[in-house]
Amino acid sequence: MATKHEQILHHITELGVGEKISVRQVAKVLQVSEGTAYRAIKDAENQGLVSTIERVGTIRIEKKLKENFEKLTYAEVVNIVDGQVLGGRNGLHKTLNRFVIGAMKLEAMMRYVEAGNLLIVGNRYQVHKLALEAGAAVLITGGFDTNENVIALADELGLPVISTSYDTFTVATMINRAIYDQLIKKEIVLVDDILIPLQDTYYMTTENNVEKWHEMNRKTGHSRYPVIGEDMKVQGMVAAKDVLGAQMHTPIEKVMTKSPITVNERTSIASVAHVMVWEGIELLPVIDDQRHLIGVISRQDVLKALQMVQRQPHVGETIDDVVTSRFHEMPQGSEYNYQCEVSPQMTNQLGMISYGVLTTLVTECGSRLLRHYKRGDIVVENITMYFIKPIQIESTIDLKGKMLEVGRKHGKVDVELFHEGEIVAKALMMAQLLDR
Predict the structure, then answer these.
(1) What CA–CA distances, in Å, run from 252 to 44, 229, 242, 257, 258?
(2) In terms of residue numbers, what domain contains 353?
(3) What residues have CB less than 8 Å from 87, skipping those under 6 apart?
(4) How far is Cα 171 from Cα 290, in angstroms, rounded to an integer?
(5) Closest to 169 (Cα-Cα) out of 109, 81, 97
(6) Which residues pair with 184 in a beta bridge?
């Protein structure tokens, strides 16, 4: 039988896109406590089923497919620009194709305004009306309002009219940044991208015995299987080492590893790789939010995906990309191994290099040195940092690495950072080494 939490999530998925949802309403309809309703609605928000907007409430939205990640909904725009919805609330779930800045004469502007656009403009009532009639939503900057006729038209057409106190340039920058962030998210490989789906997954049930494991092993050639209960929820994992020496009639429940580590489809491949390396796991069950089995993911597939990602060019630039793009190898014979220039994006609010960037520099230097000794993938285990002197914006940092220890599976590197010949930071990095 489904739990109350599952019933609420099912109720939310059955609602039409654009419908409003409230904790009180859900609690009353499904006869659950408001606390239970609140937790389920928050879970639905994490899953991308609903969106909460200040002064508007929570609305049902269409779950985004990964290929549409960079497309924003009007509801997301409201939250990005700290906006106020003046009209057309029932269209907040819609996705905008592009935004147009209305900083030209009316006739010229309307040539660029199409259905599905967002027009960013000031207090020009006639423009607001024409944009809505063309099928575009309107974002009014500078804290300005609009007239009642425009609000009525927005409500009728289901196209939002949003007001924000920010100026046009700031708003455009904020929306661009949000789209850029979505592009970075789109590039991140998740479990969902490489999992073996349920229909292609071999699994056992709690009703099976050890004889069934041997039968499946002969048939599939695999030695590890998730174990599920009657409700398709993961109960355990069973591998060759678990059945070794066990009687054929022994219930699988007696030998399986109970409460195994699991991942969900939104977990990043980097996180999965870390778990698999640290725990020595070859196969992980993939579950949904109710712990139902939806597939499995293997260590081999994870490592292949990581190697593929490392070869792909990035569309959205992360802080790591900013740092590594300024990271250069020094010529042979130099006192130092690497050099990096401190750009404005690499500093904190005081204009000094941020601690996070320092960690990235140490990781990059240590990883490159380890790769000279041993080819393969590197998982950083631990970094101990000694911060000696602040490094200011537009400085040049020289890095010197020393290999302390390198074995078949582990490596240890000492990294020193210098500015104008004076040591400014020192670190010890330990990492696990994985064969490709």
Answers:
(1) 35, 11, 9, 10, 11
(2) 319-434
(3) 146, 150, 151, 152, 153, 154, 155, 160, 161
(4) 39
(5) 81
(6) none
Reduced to 3 states, what is the DSSP secondary structure of residue 430?
A: strand
Count each helix (H run) and each strand (E run) in the chain, helices first: 16, 22
CB proximity list for 275: less than 8 A, separation 6 or greater: 261, 263, 281, 284
Which tokens sit at 17? 């896109």
Considering its fold, how many domains does the chain have in total? 4
Whether residue 91 is found in the same domain as residue 168: yes
Residues 219, 255: contact at Cβ < 8 Å? Answer: no
Radius of gyration of the chain (CA): 28
Q: Output the pLDDT for position 69.
A: 46
The structure tokens listed for 167 are 């100026």
242 shares its domain with 168: no
From 215, 276, 225, 314, select the one nearest 432 (Cα to Cα): 276
The domain boundary residue, chosen from 158, 179, 200: 179
Residue 313 lies in a domain: no
Find the CATH number of the domain harbouring 53: 1.10.10.10
Instruction: Answer yes or no: do 94 and 170 share one domain.
Output: yes
Of 91, 69, 88, 78, nearest in space to 128 by CA: 88
Q: Do the Cβ atoms of 151 and 157 come closer than 8 Å?
A: no
> Looking at residue 365, which CATH number applies to its domain?
3.10.129.10
Instruction: Confirm whether 187 is domain-assigned.
Output: no
The torsion angles phi and psi of 95, rounded to 5 degrees, stand at -100, 135
pLDDT in tens, 280-328: 888 999 998 778 899 999 988 888 887 776 655 555 567 787 888 889 9
> d(Cα 420, Cα 408) in Å, to the nearest integer?
37
Residues 293 and 197 in one domain: yes
Q: Do 247 and 297 belong together in one domain? A: yes
- Residue 418 Rama label (left phi>0; alpha psi -120 to 50; beta): beta
Q: For the chain, how far is it from start to end, CA to CA, in angstroms?
A: 45
Q: CB neighbours of 41 closer than 8 A, spacing ≥ 6?
A: 8, 12, 21, 23, 26, 50, 58
Domain finish residue from 308, 329, 349:
308
Q: What is the pLDDT of residues 39-78, one digit of tens each?
A: 888 888 877 788 777 667 788 877 655 444 457 888 889 9
Element housing 410 (H / E):
strand 410-419
Report the pLDDT value the prediction gives residue 309, as an integer from 0 to 100.
65
